[in-house]
Amino acid sequence: MPSFVALPEVATVKRREFRSTLPALLFLALFFVVPVIALLLRSVLEPQPGLQNYVELLGSSTYLKVFFNTFMVSAVVTIVSLTIGFPVAWTLAIMPSRWAAIVFAILLLSMWTNLLARTYAWMVLLQRTGLINKMLMGMGLIDKPLALVNNLTGVTIGMTYIMLPFIILPLYGTIRKIDPAILQAAALCGANRWQALTRVLLPLTVPGMAAGALMVFVMSLGYFVTPALLGGTSNMMLAELIAQFVQSLVNWGMGGAAALVLLVVTLALYAVQLRIVGNESEGGR
Amino acid sequence: MLLNFERLGWLKYVLLGITLLTALFLLLPIIFIAALSFGSSQWLIFPPPGWTLKWYSDLLADPRWLSSAWTSFRIAAIVTVLSVLLGLVTSFGLVRGRFLFRKTLRALFLTPMILPVVVLAVALYAFFLKIGLNGTMTGFVISHLVLALPFSILSISNALERFDKSIEDAAVLCGASPLEAKIRVTLPAISHGIFSAAIFSFLTSWDEVVVAIFMSSPTLQTLPVKVWATLRQDLTPVVAAASTLLILLTVILMALFALVRKGLKS
Signal peptide location in the record (chain B) (predicted)? Predict the structure, then answer.
């Protein structure tokens, strides 16, 4: 934006503006960049220099199972959130705004409620004598209580609950941006509902879905609290493994190696997401 | 027409049904916890056999709950002030400056948002063990500031980008010093950004649990760490009471946030 008046010494003012980012830069360098790099370095330096930590991490079936659990839970959570999230975002985008405001308030309330409070609620709801099991038994769907908690089922339910708003809100934005006239045109050209949905509406929302799904997937990969409380000790996820290496086993080499794997996957997927979002905003109106 | 609510036909009811069920799914645990916190069953039976305030009096009678809440509040308050101040100074540089690597720098400032928290927690834990900050107030404040700062920079620089700098220049032309113009003209104009930065920073610190688990010591615990430690032992209804108070705080902050935004629009 051009300035209204040309102030003198514009160049110096702008250089001075750079200086004002220095305190934050210094702070993050010291308490963010240095500690993270130091942790990653320990994975190739401890107990002795070499790649033995990575060989052990990627070679043992115990750790491979943790990777498998992490990817499976994240994938299922992403797919379920997307399946529920798409119709909800669609409805929100077109329903009368007074009703939509109520749904938005619920979405925000659930997002802003303390994570531990929400996880605690699911621990109670899903336990053997909990409300969900009681309701299912009352309806005659099951004879004895299902094991819904202390396993990956519990983790998946709890995480889907947390991730749903993160997929509904961006998808809502994507659908709002679609011009209804495009769908009118599809109808005029003879498309029926099903064709309009699969050939027009869904393809137009694909960039938003991909961006939202990647974000949820990446967030799920590194989640710690919910898997630790709703999952069992035999079904660990990656973030718990990192914490365990450091806290109970005091094995910094392995902890650093697991952290590097998580970090690399996260940053790579995040780069893909940035590209999708970037392309969408360039291609959009 | 798929994007016209009135002309959806039967599909309208399908979509409304799914949305209603999802809204209930999102609301269910929150209402459930609030109801249980007043229930008299030690084993969290629902519907509860009777109603009681016992869990709230247990909560308030235990000095460890109160002291951890006070610790959380002090940390969150300091983090909020530092995060807003640092976010303000940094945003001016990021938005107004025209230097090389500005975009890279902005990306760097936002990285703590996308980095898995557990990695940061473990990294800072190792670092603080070396320099003796583990289990201290300073350690808590520093680590929560790393997490809160991106939100602060994001909200303030968004507000600053929408503010027309020529208004500030006009104030300078009318005789205000550059600093005076910033404080008396620009700051009030971007106050909604500053306000959201403060709320987000406060909540980031107040609700944060992963880093806090690693930072805490037996003598210094935040409220989420206390909840976490209690939950690992048993599912006592006292946690339901604590959770309900936390939910109440969320509702109050949300209402405050909505009010301020409404007030700014009119």
Answer: none
Q: Which of B42, B77, B49, B65 is nearest to B236 (CA)?
A: B42
Q: For residue A190, tell me if it sits in a domain.
A: yes
Interchain pair B92, A94: CB under 8 A: no
Total of domains in chain A: 1
pLDDT for A223 beyond 50: yes
CA distance linking residue B249 with residue B245, whole number of Å: 6
How far is A89 from A75, CA to CA, in rounded Å?
A: 20
Q: Do residues B70 and B51 touch, judged by C-beta distance below 8 A? A: no
Q: Mind telling me how many Å the CA of B34 is from chain A's nearest CA?
A: 10
Cα B79 to Cα A165, A276, B211, distances in angstroms: 27, 34, 14
B265 backbone dihedrals φ, ψ, rounded to 5°: -70, -40
| CATH assignment at residue A182 | 1.10.3720.10
Interface of A with B in 187-246 (CB under 8 A): 187, 193, 196-197, 200-201, 218, 221-222, 224-225, 229, 239, 242-243, 246
CA A115, distance to chain mean position in Å, is 14
Contact map slice: B 203-262 vs A, CB within 8 A? 203, 207, 209-210, 214, 224, 227-228, 231-232, 235, 239-240, 242-244, 246-247, 250-251, 253-254
Residue A143 lies in a domain: no
| Strands in chain B per DSSP E | none
> Tell me: the pLDDT tens digits for B201-213?
999 999 999 999 9
Helices A202-221 and A252-283 cross at an angle (nearest 10°) of 160
Three-state DSSP class for residue A236: coil
Other C-beta atoms lying within 10 Å of the C-beta of residue B256: 12
Domain that holds residue A201: 50-113+150-283
Does the residue A95 lie in any domain? yes
At A122, give phi and psi (nearest 5°).
Answer: -70, -30
Core vs surface per residue A131-154: b (16+ CB within 10 A) or e: bbbeeeeeeeeeeebeebbbebbb
pLDDT digits (tens, 9 = 90+) for A44-78: 998 889 899 999 999 899 999 999 999 999 999 99
Question: E strands, B12-95, where?
Answer: none
Backbone angles phi, psi at B217, to 5 degrees: -125, 170
Among left, alpha and beta (phi > 0; psi -120 to 50; other), residue A142 is beta
Asked whether the ipTM of the predicted complex exceeds the cut of 0.90, the reply is no
Residue corresponding to tokens 């002795």 = A48
Task: Answer whether residue A230 is part of any domain.
Answer: yes
- Token code pair at residue A111: 């997002």
d(CA B84, CA A238): 33
Number of helices (H), then strands (E), belonging to chain A: the values are 15, 0
d(CA A219, CA A83): 18
Could A164 and B18 be called an inter-chain contact, meaning their C-beta atoms sit closer than 8 Å?
Answer: no
Q: Cα separation of A282 and B5, whole Å?
A: 29
Both tokens of B84, joined, read 């807003």
Counting one residue from chain A and one from chain B, the pairs whose CB atoms sit within 8 A come to 265
